[in-house]
UniProtKB/TrEMBL annotation:
Pfam families: Acyl-CoA_dh_1. The keyword Flavoprotein applies. Residues 46-89 form the Acyl-CoA dehydrogenase/oxidase C-terminal domain. InterPro entries: AcylCo_DH-like_C (IPR036250), AcylCo_DH/oxidase_C (IPR009075). SUPFAM superfamilies: Acyl-CoA dehydrogenase C-terminal domain-like. The lineage of its organism: Bacteria, Bacillati, Actinomycetota, Actinomycetes, Pseudonocardiales. GO terms for molecular function: oxidoreductase activity, acting on the CH-CH group of donors. Keywords: Flavoprotein. This is Acyl-CoA dehydrogenase-like protein.
Length: 98
């Protein structure tokens, strides 16, 4: 599926959910489950490996690795606090959710 088709599908789903009174709980849960690792993994990979490999140059303001490190760290903020996501997903798992 190309990006345009995907965007149209998401737009149609959002309009349908809006008419139905909101986003289904399963969708909210799926987004939370996808968002946490999507923000967490790049942060760890870049922070722990690329920055070490490049040393001080890895955190220089004009370096690509430094930029990737900063962008990955911001994703954790954009997606929501990591601790909140961990608590939500952990609580869901303890209650027997998928």
């Amino acid at each position: 599926m190309d990006h345009v088709t995907l965007a149209e599908s998401v737009r149609a789903d959002a309009a349908e959910w809006d008419r139905a009174g909101g986003v289904p709980t399963e969708v909210v849960r799926a987004v939370a489950e996808a968002g946490f690792p999507a923000a967490d993994v790049p942060t760890r990979v870049v922070a722990e490996h690329a920055v070490r490999l490049h040393g001080a140059a890895g955190i220089a303001p004009d370096s690509a690795v430094g930029r990737f490190h900063r962008d990955a760290a911001v994703m954790g903020i954009v997606e929501g606090a990591d601790e909140v996501a961990e608590q939500h997903l952990g609580g869901n798992a303890l209650r027997g959710g998928s």
